[in-house]
Predict the structure of RNA polymerase.
Amino acid sequence: MDSCDRKLIKTDSEIRLDEVSLISRIAEQDQSALSILYDRYAKVIYTIAYRILNSSEESEEIVLDVFTQVWRIAKNYNFRKGRVDTWLFMLTRSRALDRLRTYARFSKAITASEDALMVRSHTDSPEEDVLLQERRSYINTCLDELPSEQRLVLELAYFSGLSHSEIAAKTGISLGTVKTRVRLGLKKLREAIGEEWFSF
């Protein structure tokens, strides 16, 4: 290998320094630096997200979420605490797991409220029955305040027990759109209902 070839091959250390430089440029709102980082890591981030979510559409959204987050918080990156790729992979894992938890918590909250109403409807505690009825009423009120397209997919998913694919087939809406509407609807419900309602 001659000296020209050696100049074309970057060492691992040089690559890491280059990526730290990219993050610094992104922190200064350099879109070209973000594009370079995206081209370098988008496929890997997609793969990590897919292993967690098992959904192409959701994984594609995670990729966009991660790079949007990088654009916002690049100034907080500290190269002394870890490599750029490790930081990106941690952001990806966190985003994907958060999405799973949001779906699981809402489903559990709805199921718990429904089960509690059925199991306790014949108890000797009128006060408890009233509280349970109020909880169900409040959830329904929050659902009613959602845009109709988001309310529809949530009701089909959590009250009718349909999968995302079944909702798409039933409504004629694309699978990706169904998942996006579920995600946006859950986000709005979480903001309206409050975190404590998701902590069963």
Summary: Confidence is low (pLDDT under 50) at residues 1-8, 113-123. Residues 84-120 form the longest helix (37 residues). The CA atoms of residues 156 and 167 lie 7 Å apart.
